[in-house]
Amino acid sequence: MRIGVLAVQGAFAEHETRLRALSVEAVQVRLSQHLQRLDGLIIPGGESTTIGKLARRWGLIDPIRDFARSGRPLWGTCAGLILMAKDVIDGEVDHPLLALMDVTVRRNAFGRQVDSFEAELNAPPLGEEPFHAVFIRAPVIERVGGGVDVLARLEDGTVVAAQQGNMLVTAFHPELTADDRFHRYFLSLCDPSVGETSRRDAVISKQPVRSEGRPSP
Ligand code: GLN
User: Fold this and answer.
1) How far apart are alpha carbons 82 and 60 in whole angstroms?
2) Are 43 and 9 in contact (CB under 8 A)?
3) d(CA 162, CA 141)
4) pTM for this one?
5) pLDDT of 185
6) Given a cut of 50, is residue 187 above it in pLDDT?
7) Which residues are near ligand 1 (CB < 6 Å)?
8) Residue 80 CA, closest ligand 1 atom number
9) How confident is the model at residue 215, as a pLDDT?
10) C-alpha neighbours within 13 Å on the C-beta side of residue 68
11) Is 190 a catalytic residue?
12) Radius of gyration of the chain (CA)
């Protein structure tokens, strides 16, 4: 399996390390040609304004949109989530960049006082064991559209991970902790030997993914 990691700014090296530890070929993506022959793409955390500007300058926006629309899995962590969202609440990102996923995110949602923290998440698709998550000036998902499944929440119910078909988003940084279950979950979506139907529904545990709004078709 070959997984690309958008390597313009931010925590791309940590994702590459994690992928290699899982015996997956990791490819740095800086040019649209690098998207060829990938089974999935990760947009890492970092600074969404910087990643967005560089990705635009390097002509990557439409190729990444086409990549996702072709059905290949795309995973945005933190800043990557901001770039993938259809609606962004905040001053600096004046309009959504990739506008692929039907969610509304609020940038820097935890404010200055608690700009970084760690929390145990309830993430049913990963099994019963809580997922220890690191949040760094993280966004939150304030609205999920029909067809978007909620994968994880903070204790107070705040949505911090979601999936819409082949697209996965997490507000935290799974590449910074030892628990590799989110990476394995993403890889289960990318496995080309898995058919389109099971790819959409792939879950590691047998627990159903909770959904909000209209159920996915
Ligand atoms: N606060 C950053 C932004 O708005 C995201 C932080 C992160 O990716 N850890 O782009």
Assistant:
1) 16
2) no
3) 8
4) 0.88
5) 96
6) yes
7) 45-48, 78-79, 82, 107-108, 136-137
8) 8
9) 41
10) 24
11) no
12) 16
